[in-house]
Write a structure and sequence with these properties.
Number of strands: 0
Shape: rod-shaped
Oligomer: single chain
Number of helices: 3
Order of helices and strands: HHH
Radius of gyration: 19 Å
Largest sheet: none
Helix content: over 70%
Length: 104
């Protein structure tokens, strides 16, 4: 579960950097003489953020299925998957919001 979360967050962060790289290129082209082409970076960044959301949500679903498949005697008495699942779904929701913000 943690590996899926880590991977999803890393992909979302990389997507944000890629999307904002277009803004950096736009600022540079305003100072130089030759305009730079950079129209793809916001879309590519948003696609990477969406891929991170898919990785996070996929990890949450896989973890949820795994927890359901465990017999009650195999689970530790103090374990509750609710915190990890709520954290994953919150990160997926934040990723969706970030993807929408990058496209607007």
């Amino acid at each position: 579960m943690l590996a899926w979360l880590r991977t999803g967050i890393a992909i979302m962060a990389f997507g944000f950097v890629v999307a904002r790289f277009g803004l950096f290129l736009r600022l540079l082209s305003g100072q130089g003489e030759a305009p730079l082409r950079h129209g793809v970076s916001p879309y590519l960044g948003a696609a990477l953020v969406c891929l991170g959301v898919v990785a996070t949500a996929g990890g949450a679903l896989q973890y949820q299925r795994f927890c359901r498949s465990l017999a009650s005697y195999d689970r530790p008495p103090s374990s509750s998957p609710a915190f990890a699942l709520s954290l994953s779904w919150a990160l997926a929701l934040i990723g969706i919001v970030l993807g929408v913000i990058l496209l607007v």
